[in-house]
Amino acid sequence: MKDPRVIVCAGGGGVGKTTTSAALSVALAARGHRTLIVTIDPARRLAGAMGVPITDVVTPVPLPAAHGRLWALMPDPRRSMGTFIDYLFAEEPEAKARMLANKLYIGLADAAAGVHELVAMNLVARAATDGDFDVVVIDTAPSRHAIDFVTYPARLASLLGGRTVAWLAGLAQRSGGATAPRGLLSWGTGHVEHLLARVTGPNLVRDTADLFGDLALVRERFVALTKRASELLLGERVAYALVAAPTAAARDDVLFLAARLVKLGRRPRAVVLNRADTEAAPWVRALREGRGVAPSILEVLDVLDLERRTRADAADGLAVELGATLPWASVVRLPYVEASAPEAIVAALSTELDAHLAALLPAVG
Ligand SMILES: Nc1ncnc2c1ncn2[C@@H]1O[C@H](COP(=O)(O)OP(=O)(O)O)[C@@H](O)[C@H]1O
Ligand SMILES: [Mg+2]
């Protein structure tokens, strides 16, 4: 079975990443690709509109336009860590119980930045292995650092495979008094532990040691999963799409993220300019053509027109700039949709995106 192709959508906050990712996944499913949409930062209203719950379980999306070929994975940032631990410690129930009671773990589980991304990516790695998908669309969190999460799996895997962890795991045994330290090396180690305990307090040292001791038990499972996540995110079958809106802030975010990706050796394949173009709404045209319309209403229509043109000009300017700065990326323009229901916006954008699937999909077969 071939690995799925992966499209990662990234961009600043509020530019329409989640909406665009959903629309893209509907367009792919409608074209016959078995598609999984993963949102790291699920929008409740959109999940509701797509008829899927926010959970760590892969769920079929019942939208008629998706023809039964679309699934969603929208893990809840507050709950995914627990699910992940359940999987990791499936064969080590006692270690799991110790881990869940570990003060350090409790502190880390919801405090550490990027933990949710890491957990979500491991859920994706499992889904990609079990699910027989053609394409996985990943909607990232709204942050400039959202891209960095692609490197977490590899970094953590090497950390967990490294000497520090072995040492910390050994610390757990020694703090339990299993073996007495011997020799110069052990004396050195004991000395460091003693110092650590003085600086951080004995409980933190013990908690750290216990945590890594228990993690060491499931290291193989963890390393395999994170390696798989790395392959999916940084391998040959991934394409990055940056989402922007025609605003100065979104432009800066896109250029920052593009530079970050280039540094990671993954140039973005496309930039999606969302909310770039607007048709005058039919009621605007009707009002303009009508007779006896009050001058104040016409003034409002002029303001709306001006806003529309300003948006289009900004989008044109940004498209030209992106074409010059990121010449290898295609620019895909999406309209501003005059609707407030999220499913209506997704439906309209998925129709638009149908013509651009080749520009967004990774070039491999
Ligand atoms: N092309 C569009 N036209 C109109 N509204 C849009 C468009 N794209 C997104 N929206 C709306 O903008 C809001 C933010 O979009 P969202 O996809 O949640 O952004 P992000 O995920 O980047 O934070 C949502 O209410 C969404 O329905
Ligand atoms: Mg979002």
Written overview of the protein:
- Helix content is 57%, strand content 12%.
- Strands 3-4-2-5-1-6-7-8 form an 8-stranded mixed β-sheet, with helices on both faces.
- Helix 12 links the parallel strand 6 and strand 7.
- Helix 4 packs antiparallel against helix 10.
- It is built from 16 helices and 8 strands.
- The chain has 365 residues and is of the alpha/beta class.
- About 2% of the residues have low confidence.
- The protein has a single domain, classed as P-loop containing nucleotide triphosphate hydrolases (Rossmann fold, 3-Layer(aba) Sandwich).
- The radius of gyration is 25 Å and the shape is elongated.
- The structure holds adenosine-5'-diphosphate (ADP) and magnesium ion (MG).
- The site of adenosine-5'-diphosphate (ADP) has 17 residues, from helix 1, strand 7 and helix 15.
Q: Helix coverage percent of residues?
A: 55-70%
* Low-pLDDT residue intervals, each spanning 5 or more residues: 177-182
* Sheet with most strands: 8 strands, mixed
- N-C termini distance: 13 Å
Q: Could you say what the CATH topology is called?
A: Rossmann fold
- Tertiary shape: elongated
Write the H/E string, N to C. EHEHEEHHHHEHHHHHEHEHHEHH
Number of β-strand runs: 8
CATH superfamily: P-loop containing nucleotide triphosphate hydrolases
The quaternary organization reads as single chain
Bound molecules: adenosine-5'-diphosphate, magnesium ion
Mean pLDDT: 84
Look at the structure and give the CATH class: Alpha Beta
CATH second-level architecture: 3-Layer(aba) Sandwich
Furnish the topology, listing elements before pairings.
Elements: E1 5-11, H1 17-30, E2 35-39, H2 44-50, E3 59-60, E4 70-73, H3 80-88, H4 93-101, H5 103-111, H6 115-131, E5 135-139, H7 152-161, H8 163-175, H9 183-200, H10 202-217, H11 219-234, E6 238-244, H12 248-263, E7 270-277, H13 282-289, H14 295-325, E8 330-335, H15 342-353, H16 357-360
Parallel strand pairs: 1-5, 1-6, 2-4, 2-5, 6-7, 7-8
Antiparallel strand pairs: 3-4
Helix pairs in contact: 1-15, 4-10, 6-11, 7-11, 8-10, 9-10
The structure holds adenosine-5'-diphosphate (ADP) and magnesium ion.
